Amino acid sequence: MLKVKKENFINEKRPHESGAKHVSGRANYTDDIPELPGTLYSAIGWSKKAHAIIKKINLDKVIKSEGVITVVTSNDIEGRNDVGPVYDGDPIFPEKAEYYGQPLFAVAASTTELARKAVLKAKITYKTLKPITTIKEALKKKSYVLKEKVIKKGEALKAIENSASRLKGNFTTGSQEHFALEGQTAFVIPQEDYDFKVFSSTQHPSETQQIIAKMLNQKSNTITVETRRIGGGFGGKETQSFIFAAICTLLAKKTKRPVKLRMDRDDDIIITGKRHDFYSEYEVGFDELGVIKGLKLKLASRCGASPDLSGAINERALLHIDNAYYLENILVENYLCKTNTASNTAFRGFGGNQGMMVIENIIDHIANSLKKDSAEIRRRNFYQKKKKNITHYNMKIEDNVIQEIFDQLLKSSNYKSRKLNIKKFNQENKYIKKGISITPVKFGISFTTWHLNQAGALVHIYCNDGSVNVNTGAIEMGQGTYTKIAQLVAHELGLPFSKVKVSSTRTDKVPNTSASAASSTTDLNGAAALNAISKIKMNLATYVKRKYKIKNAEGIYENGNVKFKGKIFKFNSLIKEAYLNRVSLSSSGFYATPKIHFDKKNFKGRPFLYFSYGAAVSEVMIDVLTGENKIIRADILHDAGKAINPSIELGQIEGGFVQGAGWLTMEEVNWKSNGELTTHSPSTYKIPAVSDMPEKFNVEIFKHGKNIENVINKSKTTGEPPLMNAMSVFFAIKNAIASVGNYTLNPHLDAPATPERILMSINNLKRKI
Ligand code: MTE
Ligand code: MOS
């Protein structure tokens, strides 16, 4: 346990507000909410074909199955039969199946087990159509979910032509299953007048509310969505939770009884979309020093059966195609491939990391072709402070600290001497090879959809004891936003942490919220909470001014006291006194991110308020006979600005890195050519375990970090960006493979770098030597 040194602090380590409850099993998740008498349990029946017209759904045997109370199909939907967040395309129950696993009907029964048994008894008649399952097939058939996009800066083709050297290649990064500890879950309780109380494990209560209202043809004010915490989201509950909450509500409406839907893990993985895998083809021109002069790129992603968030995800990939590098001339074509697979969705990094991997792979290719250390080539291509500081979307970078972070880490990790030692080790060892790599991270913070950058809050101070209740749109998904918001509020009021409670996120308390996503949750919701407090403070100041004839009544809130010029109150006494004098002790708050704007059509503007930076050095070991690999050591230096809670930020930095390493090395999503997902349980899909963590793991927050923008506490979020520090693992593996060819050739390696891919890469290399 962390020691709490003093109350009322910020910038200091403090355990997660639910940490003890998480580890002792006392934290309530949606499935732990006490069930009311008469509660029913549900299960979903889904398509066994990836592409087919649903000719007939015969549910006779399902209805007769033990314990079944009712079934629902598309015929039960009065309003909108779609849960698509931006565009239509995600029917709750479709007429035409677009992927293997697409929900077709649902059952409510007396137990979960009976519901799950019943759905298997459906007789569904399909007219099978040919599925498209791969990016390459989709590109060939021009099967897209949205129109392709071309972005351009300078004269890429000319620049490539005039360059001293040129390279061509292609590169793939894989998909990834979110695998949150808590699966998709909803619990719905009918209220009077066909109102519904919806408990949902979601990152986005407001949109859940809207989607259910539209489905039922009811007003939004009849639906209340509540979420206390979720057992991980990672983007997988930003939109993909909607269908479960919607189906659960549909059953509750039909039966007039409380209904729970807790997904079986296999069904959960089969039904929901994952990370977009990306395929790229590149042509790059560069000078003798390895500085990129021109880049032409084709970037295609597997979006699955519907648009979902693919437009924004591909846009973020395009916005991060530079990572930390200045690109003067680029031409990028972006294709959003429609395939008959579950609709791919948000996943930590939201496409940004897929874009960053493309440029990192290109830089690595350049370094290998010049036979130089890739660290050197990376450094030479970095954005500069005074010049070379305009991005390919015309945003001036004003907070660049990548050089400092990179150089500090090179030193602290002993990169150079270790690199020499590794070369020596590789000369002396035939079957075990080591590799090392350093990679930078620059990640833009804000939703790229402008209007989402707003948040609300509701703060109450209770008159009898001065305790504080804070409500915002923030979803606690393990990342610590409730803890950080409570710290901000406690600090602002000069109160001990224990006097502040952040309560369950609810659409009837704070409306019209954005998803807890884009790493912006605390930035936005924390600022909204502080705005509410500033209003309550104003009420108190007005009262003190009037009552005590104090001219300048700016209160200082510290250590449980409130100091005005010439008068000090105990916080509790002031609150009680204010109440007795009829002063409002409650307020809503609001925040909208300043400065940002983006012209999507011309791909120009300032989409981000600020950038988060980081770098990592990873050292790996591979077995050239089996392709097995291991991270021996990782050193990370990451910018959290002035961290609100360094221990929570460290947790995010470590967790992000491990999740990123999983994506790039061992997690492999696989479909059969008929569109059937073969990796839908821990027995077929491997996520990192404790034993996969680096043996040596040195993680530090950048000490000189400070957000130059007006963000709460001058902090920087650590939600998504640390995941990308794991890029260093992939390129360390590539570096180990390159040693097999005595560093004379560039190995081709796609992600994830599974043992099979590592072996193939080695064998290809050996053939060329
Ligand atoms: N950390 C935990 N423990 N659980 C999660 O689900 N989601 C990640 C990241 N870290 C996640 C997490 C993703 S995808 C995002 S966008 C951010 O947290 C969201 O939280 P934030 O905005 O507070 O950083
Ligand atoms: Mo995170 S992918 O923005 O939910």
What are the SSEs and their pairings?
Elements: H1 19-24, E1 40-46, E2 52-58, H2 60-64, E3 68-72, E4 96-97, E5 103-109, H3 112-119, E6 123-128, H4 135-140, E7 144-153, H5 156-161, E8 165-173, E9 185-190, E10 196-200, H6 205-216, E11 223-227, H7 242-255, E12 259-262, H8 265-271, E13 278-286, E14 292-304, H9 310-319, E15 330-338, H10 352-370, H11 374-381, H12 402-412, H13 415-428, E16 432-445, E17 454-461, E18 468-472, H14 481-493, E19 500-502, E20 505-506, H15 521-548, E21 556-558, E22 561-564, E23 567-570, H16 571-580, E24 586-592, E25 597-599, E26 604-606, E27 610-623, E28 629-638, H17 646-666, E29 696-701, H18 727-740, H19 755-768
Parallel strand pairs: 1-12, 10-11, 14-15, 18-19, 28-29
Antiparallel strand pairs: 1-5, 2-4, 2-6, 3-5, 7-15, 8-13, 9-10, 9-12, 11-20, 13-14, 16-27, 17-18, 17-24, 21-22, 22-23, 25-26, 27-28
Bound molecules: ligand MTE and dioxothiomolybdenum(VI) ion.
Write a compact overview of the structure shown.
By secondary structure, the chain is α+β, with helices and mostly antiparallel strands. The strands form 7 sheets. It has an 8-stranded mixed sheet. It has a 5-stranded mixed sheet with strand order 7-15-14-13-8. A 4-stranded mixed sheet has the order 16-27-28-29, with helices on both faces.
Explain what you see:
By secondary structure, this protein is of the alpha+beta class. The protein has 19 helices and 29 strands. The strands form 7 sheets. The chain has an 8-stranded mixed beta sheet. Strands 7-15-14-13-8 form a 5-stranded mixed beta sheet. Helix 6 links the parallel strand 10 and strand 11. Helix 6 packs across helix 7, helix 10 crosses helix 11 and helix 14 packs parallel to helix 15. The N terminus is likely disordered. Bound molecules: ligand MTE and dioxothiomolybdenum(VI) ion. The site of ligand MTE has 21 residues, from helix 15 and helix 17.
